[in-house]
Amino acid sequence: MTETIHAARFPEFLSRLYDGELELAERAAFEAHRSGCEQCRRAADAFAASLAVFRSSPTAPAAADLSARILRRIRAQSPSRRPFGVMFGIDIRWAGAFVAALLVVLMSAPLLLRRQAPVPDAPFAIPAHILGTTTAIDKAKEPPGNAGPVPSGRPAALSAPPAAPAKDAPADDQRQRSSSPSLEAKAAAPAPRRQATSLERSGGEAGAANAADVSVSPLTLSVRPIDGEGPAPGVAEQPPDERLAVLRGQEFVLTVEAEGRVRQVQPSTQDGLLSKSEVPEVMARRAPRPSDALLALRFAPGQRPRRLLVRIE
Amino acid sequence: MTEPERTDEELLASAREGDEDAFGAFVRRHTATVHRWMARAVGEGDADDMTQDVFVKAYRGLARFRGEAPARAWLAAISHNAVKNRYRARSRFRRVFAGSTDAVPELEAESTTAGPEEAARTGESRRVVAEALKRLPPDFRMPVVLRDIEEWSYEEIAVSLSLPIGTVKSRIARGRGQLKDILTPLLSGRLP
Hints:
The structure holds two protein chains of two kinds. In chain A, 38% of the residues lie in helices and 11% in strands. Chain A is of the alpha+beta class. Chain A is built from 13 helices and eight strands. In chain A, strand 1 and strand 2 (90-91) form a beta hairpin. By secondary structure, chain B is mainly alpha-helical. In chain B, 71% of the residues lie in helices and 0% in strands. Chain B is built from nine helices and no strands. Chain B has helices at 8-16, 20-41, 44-60, 71-97, 115-122, 125-134, 138-149, 154-161, 165-187. The longest helix of chain B is centred in the middle third of the chain and has 27 residues, at 71-97. Chain B starts with 7 loop residues before the first helix and ends in a 5-residue tail after the last helix. Classes of the chains: A alpha+beta, B mainly alpha.
């Protein structure tokens, strides 16, 4: 009973009364009490009256240009605001995509480069950096007088007229040089860039030219023995020029059976064109091999198998 | 044929993507409401500045608006924090530079000396109410304004201000009680 009488002292009770949240019994008890309690009646009435004044008191409306001022202030304080993800004037979303794409390119570049190894103009074309290099073997073969530096990296034989072999050179080497003095220069030159214009024969070579079938220039075969077994056998049979044309400017080492059939064709390792360790790699990534056309060559039969250096011009 | 009016959520979504016109439309739509809240919570003299503060903070916090609650609830939360921070800063300033440990109720207390008689004589309940509100603790102001001026439900207020509903009810009841204590003598011509 005491609690009901003085409930109006508590703002929580008056607030619930004002919001109509009192239970029916609770409200009935308070109304009964308020009718006989001046203090609680005045408290409840003052509570309602003050809230009525509070709720009904007007406020000055916002200035007409307040919105415009707000927007000006926002622009002034955030002039560089851009959509979400933009920082320091850079759209980090696109920047992220760009970085991801760049990473993909960088990571895939080695794979692409490995697949797209330098495609030569013609199969078995030998990389320029290899063509321009003189091997230790060549240096050993060079006459002492040609040992000076050559700016182009080409053998000295190209820069100087053919010199007489040195007296102290090995007999075998002298024999080869004397049999084909101009062949070294041809082999050492960058093969794809050179255009032969004449039929060349050296030693026992048997060249074959069919100028009528070749549109650019007559095709020639230079054959030189490299086995020290005497002059090269003559060419008895030759595949069509169009099959050999793709090999123009290249040299190959042919292993020829005694009966004249070509048993094996290898890119030349002479004159520093390819090291022996490079030959299998070069051949492995060239399939099918256009040099197989050389297998159709037939030479004049001899006493024993021969190794011949054949250059197609 | 007029273009259908975009919802608050659509405007804010566009604003997040950098559409400043969308945020401008949102500001124009709610300026009067926020100004009304601020006129009650901090007084008409500071309402303009506080309204601007609220929208600037809203603009900076666009990325945090998830659309899970109505935009006006989001604005109410920003307003509530702005009111509290304003008086917290003032209180700190007074403690540091004036040596006072009193809190908010003493704000502009000198203006109350002319209040009751003038209010009773001219009926300027507007100024009396403003004075009364200035004496309310900042934590009570926005809940009371939202409940008794904007007539929001307790649940809406609790969600907007991220407070337990019991806390909201308690603050509103205590705020109302303080308003009664402040306003009753002012309205009856007596000093508190």
